[in-house]
Structures are given as structure tokens and as C-alpha cells.
Amino acid sequence: MAKNTTKDLTVGNPMKLILGFSLPLLMGFLFQQFYSVVDTMIVGQILGKEALAGVGSTGAINFMVIGFCMGVCNGFAIPISQRFGAKDYKSMRKFVTHSIILCTIFAVVMTFFVSIYCRQILIVMNTPENILDYAYEYIFIIFVGIPVIYMYNLLSGIIRALGDSKHPVIFLVIASFVNIGLDLFFILVLKMGIAGAALATVISQLVSGICCLVFIVRKLEILRLSKIDWEIDSSYFRILFNMGVPMGLQYSITAIGSIVIQIAINGQGSDAVAAVTAAGKVGMFMCCPFDAMGSTMATYGGQNVGAKRLDHLEDGLKACVKLGIVYAIAAFVFLCFAGPTLVCLFVKSSETEVIRLAAYYLRWNSAFYIPLALVNIVRFLIQGMGYSMFAILAGVCEMIGRCIAAMVLTPLLGFTGICLASPVAWILADLFLIPAYIIVRNKLKKLFNESSIHESLNINRS
Q: What's the pTM?
């Protein structure tokens, strides 16, 4: 049973492996964005511009907190994929159980604190008064659902670490339809307003998490846990902590820059907030292939480092970069023509100023999709190789880029400065990540060569 639901990414044509693994992931990200887009469409078209801006104004704080949850879970999956690549299944199961324990602790602590302070954070972020209540009502419910977010991201990360990128997609499809149905029921039938959209999101994530759990228990015999797997070993906690927390902090540090730029956006008024919200939804949908490439390279890097296949890893990097460049160019051309039409999915056609600003924002961002492709591919590959601390430093670069845009470019260029925030962040991150990859690659080559010499000496002595 396990043989049919796991995949070895250490042998075979890298391009075929990457495409085969990333396409199901892409479908998963698309469906994830699909039900997020439906949320936004329903809120914008039915509840109005202020409600849409309210949801949008929570984007930065949402990314800071939820991004930390996702980053931690992705980091925990790395040693699992490395042990799977090394065929060390006993240690792999120990990493799984210790990941579950750590995620439970993180979920309880984070839910308690962020739920208490989220309104104060929104006020500090200069959220416009006319959308503050919408923002608080939405984000409070999302934060109460943090344990569910940990559950889904950890379990789906474990499944992907074993080379199975298909089943998490199936579960996301199910969750997407649940989310859409609950959106319509809560908002149109029960008249719950913006709270209905948030509650629908949390419940749909719970459904996908339960599906992952049932699949692991029933299908993945390789993850059949015994009592000995639950015995506490501090060394496993230390490795997981060193992998997961830096990746979580990478998201959170990046989000600090997003919070700074969100404050600048809020200062431009509710039209600018609504425009960036609508454009952001279109942009996230278009960037799903980059997300899929990144997640693919994390698992690909983890398994190949575990198998000591650096040559195979480098071939995979070259193949993925080619895919990223081709898609980036195609996406830019598409958004230049279709951007205004896509924005109209989220705001009424009468909101001409919002549509104009959103289309302008999309053109600037999509012009720099090649640097974004490199950020995702190289950063996640480095993380998969086991050097997650570099993720924090890359996040610092992105934070600095967004702060420069908020504090320097926006006062000089107005809304154009806001449009340049992400491009500047991506370029600065690439200037750090590319040399970082070279350093990591050389370190591993030296480590593996020394290991091979020691193994040869031991064989000769015996």
C-alpha cells in the first residue's frame, strides 16, 4: 500500500520528476486560491467595498501569523523527507511524532495570544475606522482556527515529504467545495456577513485536515506508529526546532515588511486598500505555479540530500528555473491584457478608480515575476537541503525591501511606490539567496566527500 502512495525523487529525469510532483501541487494551490477567491468575490460583490477592504486590511497580519504556522510545518517536513530519502524509516517516524507534539504546543500558545491582541494590532496598523470592525470580526475567527491550520499543514506536509503530492490536492478539492457551499449558506441564508466567510474558511480547512489524517492512518503503512515512536528524544525536538522555527520566522519577518507597507496602503484610503486586496487575489492565483515549484524543490532537495545525490539536485534546480522563467514571461503578458477584467470579479464595475489602481498594481508586480520565481525555487531548495536559517535572512531582505518602499518610495511616488514594494523585496532576496545556495552546495559537497573517504577507509580496514 505504501509503495503506491510514496515517490522516490532521487532517481529519474529531473524535469519529469519535477513536473510530475509539481503539477498536482499546482492544482492544490489553485483550488486553495479558488476558494479564497470565492470568499473575496462574495464579500466584495454582496457585502460591499468596505467589507472587501476590511478583509484585505488583515492580509499582512494574517500572513505574519498563518505564515509562521505554515513555515513551521514545512520545516518539520524536511527531516522527514531526508530520512525517507535515506531509507531510515525508524527515525522518520520519530520525527513525525515529535512534529505532532511540537505543533500541538505551538497551536495552543499562538491561538491564545493572537486572539487576545489582534484588535490592538489592527489599530496600531492604522486600519481605517470605517473598515476596522469588518477587519477584526474576520481575523479573530481565522486566528481561533490556528489549531486547524497546524493540523492540515503538518499532515499534508508529511504526505508530500514521502513523495505523494496528489492526495493533498484531492483533499483540497473537497475542502474547496465545502468552503464555497458554506460561504453561500452562511452569508446568503444565515446572513452572518463577514464572519460567515471566515467561519467557512476554518471549517473547510478542518475538513481537509481530517481527510489527510484518515488517509495517513488507512493508507500509509510506512507511518504506522507504535508506542516506541512516541518516546521523547530531545535530539529530535532540537532538529525540528532548528528546521521549523527559522522557516516560520522567515514568513513572519517577511510579513513585518508587509505590515509596514499595509500601513502605507491604509494611509492612501479605502479605495487603495480595496484595489490592492483585489489585485492581491488575482496575483496570488497567478503565482500558484511559483508556490508549487517552491514546495516541489523543498521535497526534492530533502530527498536528494538524504540520498547524497547533489548532482541530481543541481539538474533539478536548472530544470525548475527554466520552467519558472517561461511561466513568468507568459503570466506578465497575460496580466497586461486581462488584469482589469480579472479585477472586476472582486469589485463592482462601477468602482472605476479601484479597478484602475488594481490593474496598475498587477502590471508592476507581474513585470518582476522572474525574480519571484527565483526566490521561491532557490529559497525552498536551500531549506530542503537542511539550511533553513538562510530562510530567515532571505526574509529579512524582503522585509527591508518592503520597508524601503513604504518609507522612501511611497512618499516620493505615491501609489507607484506601493506597487514597487514586492519587486524590490524579491530582488533583494535573490541577491542574498543565489550566493547562499552556492555556499550551501559547496558545504554539502565537502561533507559528502569526507563521508565517502571515511566509509572507504572503514571498508579497507575491515
A: 0.72
The answer to whether the CB of 260 falls within 8 A of the CB of 403 is yes
Yes or no: say if 243 and 75 are a contact pair by the CB < 8 Å rule.
yes
Amino acid at 120: Q
The count of structural domains within the chain is 1
Quick check: is 460 in a domain? no
pLDDT value for 6 = 66
State which residues form the domain around 302: 2-455
Distance CA 334, CA 289 (A): 14
What was the pLDDT predicted at 406?
85
Residue 307 is assigned to a structural domain of this protein: yes
* Residue numbers in the chain where pLDDT is lower than 70: 1-6, 32, 35-40, 49, 450-462
Q: What is the pLDDT of residue 343?
A: 86
Please provide the distance, in angstroms rounded to a whole number, between the alpha carbons at the two ends of the chain: 39
Q: Render the burial of 352-384: b for 16+ CB within 10 Å, e for the rest.
A: eebbebbbbbbebbbebbbbbbbbbbbbbbbbb
Are 358 and 283 in contact by the 8 Å Cβ rule? The answer is: no
Q: Is residue 461 part of a domain?
A: no
- Mind giving me the DSSP string for 300-353? HHHHHHHTT-HHHHHHHHHHHHHHHHHHHHHHHHHHHHHHHHHHTTTS-TT-HH
Q: How far apart are CA 416 and CA 434, in angstroms?
A: 28
